[in-house]
Amino acid sequence: MSQATNGSCPAARKAPNKVSSLIVGAKCQAKACMVTDLSECSRRYGSSAKTKILEGVVLESISMKNPTTNRTANHVRARYDLGGGHLKDVTLHIRSVEVVSESVRANPSPAAGLLHLPSPVTAPAMDPALSPPTEVGAATLPPTPAPAVAPAVAPSPAVPVVTTHEVDWFIDDEAVLHPIGQPTPRRSWSIKTPIGDVLQAGSNADKRLTKMDVFLLAFPPESLVSICRNTNVVLEATGIPTTTVGELLKFFGIIILATRFEFESRASLWSMTPLSTFIPAPNFGRAMSRDRFDEIWSCLRWGNQPSERPESMSSEHYRWLLVDDFVEEFNAHMAQAFAPSEHICVDESISRWYGQGGHWINMGLPMYVAIDRKPENGCEIQNAACGQCGVMLRLKLVKTAAEESTTTHVHDDGLLHGTVVIMEKIDNPTRLSQLLVTNFLSTTR
């Protein structure tokens, strides 16, 4: 049997294994759930927590010996990008890491080699009155024609990062004029009184404003009248005595005070028996009887809903009429009276719902939302608040896509509907800038 030559040696034809490609600086990939814990993956990546792949850079190849099995295994220490500028160094078993081959690293995407040609800069024209005088008799030279400027090369169409609600979103770092990560000019929050006075932090040092006065500054005054009027319609229909604005404010005070107690039954708040020697009895009956509270509670109406649904109105829109008026009045009032600080915090809240509901039935809550990271299910509310004082600025009820496409509120000009903002940006940039100046008073973070 003849020996194999250099080109036919089986060892020479063998492909390099994963260990040989683990050079420092090589690109690698690993599942996010292997890099960090599952709870953080769920918070960052949502439903893709168990399938998200993270990019990393190899820092070191380590051989570790298991003291139990007395076997040596190869591990990779790499630095992974979790997103948002967060990096994490993790050591994983080599089977949990996928090393990007040299061919992939040597052939970057064609888009990476494109050059952004700057637009030609035109020198400002000089005012004839400021031009230097020419000497008498001097030969006047004809103007030198400017060299022809090559037309700018049209960039190749970019690939959208994501498409949501038929709108393409792209990465454009130059579109943000405010420097990312740079300090933001500080500004103090303020609220305007009905007579035009502006109150800021420390304005009530002399305690001339009561808690009721502060509550009324943030509560839309027209909502008190409309809630009282709509509630009285239901009270009269059921044969119960009507209420007043003063009694309605007392009712709201009882609801707020009830959040300070821990109880199993709401009826226990009217008990006159103390829970212990050190905790006095709630005794809510000093302000309002339990029967009267239950009457107003069962007939309370935040919006104007007709007794019968019009034929041209959807069932979902008809049910949202119970609260739509209050949400619009609150947003309009806060946009006019409150000026936030330089920090605006956005979040999503859940209003717990026990009854029936859903877009698939014509009763109960129109849009029932269940989110894993929320302890309770119910109505989802997207909100924005001042990051300095915590005052709520804006509310938006999460509705179905069909209802969102047919509903655009007048006072916010559709700013909270993403598709409307994108259409304004494409068709009329001037209008978009006016909307941002009018509705967003500071940098949103």
From TrEMBL:
Highest taxon of source: Eukaryota
Q: Where is the PiggyBac transposable element-derived protein domain?
A: 212-408
A Pfam family (short name) is DDE_Tnp_1_7
| PANTHER family named in the record | PIGGYBAC TRANSPOSABLE ELEMENT-DERIVED PROTEIN 4
- Name used for this protein in its record: Transposase IS4
